[in-house]
Specification:
Elements: H1 2-7, H2 9-23, H3 27-40, H4 46-57, H5 61-69, H6 73-77, H7 82-105
Length: 108
């Protein structure tokens, strides 16, 4: 977490907020937060995935699928050194696992 704390501490705060609003079902709030993260931080994968799911839930499945298909994780991380890229990959996996466990726990 060294990279994110040193370079983008507000990035993690916004991501946690987006995750929590998503899990709480506050979709509008989540969408606004995801928009802020996407504009401000190029290296973050999670907002794109949350945005795709929000679009899917709004009935825009084609747009959601297109968004996910166009994601290139290697391109997102290309400007970072290898340790920072590895950290971001690990954080993305942890975040996705947390979301999946919470959704499973809530039986959604």
């Amino acid at each position: 977490m060294k990279f994110l704390v040193q370079v983008h501490p507000e990035d993690r705060e916004l991501q946690y907020y987006a995750i929590e609003t998503y899990l709480a079902g506050r979709r509008d709030e989540c969408e606004r937060t995801v928009g802020k993260i996407s504009k401000k931080f190029k290296h973050v994968l999670l907002p794109h995935l949350l945005q795709a799911d929000l679009l899917r839930r709004q009935g825009e499945s084609k747009t959601a699928k297109r968004l996910v298909r166009n994601l290139d994780f290697d391109e997102i991380l290309e400007d970072l050194d290898s340790s920072a890229a590895a950290e971001i990959r690990a954080r993305s996996i942890l975040d996705l696992n947390h979301i999946c466990m919470e959704i499973d726990r809530q039986n959604r």
